[in-house]
Amino acid sequence: MELILLFGTLFILLALGVPVAFSLGLASLATMTYLDIPLVVAFQRMAAGMNVFALMAIPFFIYAGELMNQSGIAERLVKFAYSLLARIRGGLGLVNVASSMMFGAISGSAVASASAMGSTLIPMMQKQGYDADYSVNVTATAATTGLLIPPSHNMIIYAVAAGGGVSIGSLFLAGIIPGLLLGLGLMVVTYLVAVKRGYASGEFPGWGEVLRHFAGALPGLLTVLIILGGILSGIFTATESSAIAVIYTVLVAVFVYRSLDWQGFITASVNAVKTTSMILLIIGTAASFGWLLAVIEVPSQLSAALLEISDNPFIILLIINLTLLMLGTFMDMSPLIIITTPIFLPVMTSIGMDPTQFGIMLILNLGLGLVTPPVGTVLFVTCAVGGIRIEDTLRSIWPFYIVFIAVLALVTYLPSTTLFLPSLVNQ
To answer: Would you list the domain boundaries of the chain?
Structure first.
């Protein structure tokens, strides 16, 4: 009964349009009242869920992404990618994917990447004769590559939700190959659709122009190398690296680009505070919700139920992927990571899956949910920018879904896709 009450309340509130954080919190309070658990426990679990040192990295990474957006990093990445790819058929679509991969790696946020790239490239693509559905589909799906290419704050949330037993550095490394495969796959589909629709190609500006734009984008791109290099070399932790990323971004924006004024600094700070507050509130309420799931023994019951259905790891992985995909279409990524990790991770380890591999599988799967109706946060943002209804994208977005499913299959059933790079470093 308590399980029905917990999830029933949650889904009813979500259907009524109540924000995710409040839905999770109210569902937890209702269930605690039914179980005669003091309500103060809910707030204690919220505080405990947010009081984790590793989570300090999230506001700093978000802040760095906002500062880069305000200082024109996104625009410089677009110019560099355009100088390289404009001469190819449907070049602006390829520019969109390449720029999203680079900016997503810097910001670590699919929504931020979709907003930054969408506001810059969707109008440009439509002006040059690209269909609205094509522009939106490319932008939305490309934005999710930043979830896998480090640094990604969602990997930090997963590491915390997994109980601290998973290395954040290993997760960062594990996401590189799947992120690159996803980006390259999306570029292939983008090109093929462009050829089929007969989109025009641009002109190559010359290698001198390419080098000039590369020099302009390089200081921003070095952020990723500094973060990864520092973490893997042991110079600083993931949390420390996030603070260094902010300092580096400010120095580059003020002294190299000279593009960050006081107003831009204030705007970036306010946006970072707003985003961080939302994420941490979601993390707190999701932690309370997840604690309740443990109290009513959902993880053990689910594990037993799955093993009763089949003892074949292939089948179990397929069921879990389908479940995560369904959940990902209705809820944001952060709360789902916190809620589903303690439920599914024991099942994954029992069938021999490495926790690092499961983390990447989880994030990639939920990333697909971000661009899948009926909710699909990233798809919603890009549709708003492109001035098109979500329903109008469904007829043409399926080739991009195929790429997601192919990469997800590799991550799920071929461990080396995620574990190869971490194994090299950990030898």
So the answer is: 38-425
Cα 404 to Cα 81, 82, 159, 184, 407: the distances in Å are 23, 24, 23, 11, 5
Highest mean pLDDT among 183-187, 222-226, 249-253 belongs to 183-187
pLDDT in tens, 80-138: 877 877 778 878 888 888 878 877 666 666 777 777 777 777 887 888 788 888 888 99
- On whether the CB atoms of residues 221 and 102 are closer than 8 A, the answer is yes
Q: What is the largest CA-CA distance in the chain?
A: 72
* Residues 367, 333 contacting (CB under 8 angstroms): yes
Structure token digits, residue 167: 């290395």
The model carries a pTM of 0.85
Continuous segment of H or E residues that includes residue 182: helix 176-197
What's CA 92's distance to the chain center, in Å?
A: 23
For residue 49, CA distances in Å to 106, 287, 342, 356 come to: 26, 5, 13, 21
Cα–Cα nearest to 411, from 350, 347, 366: 366
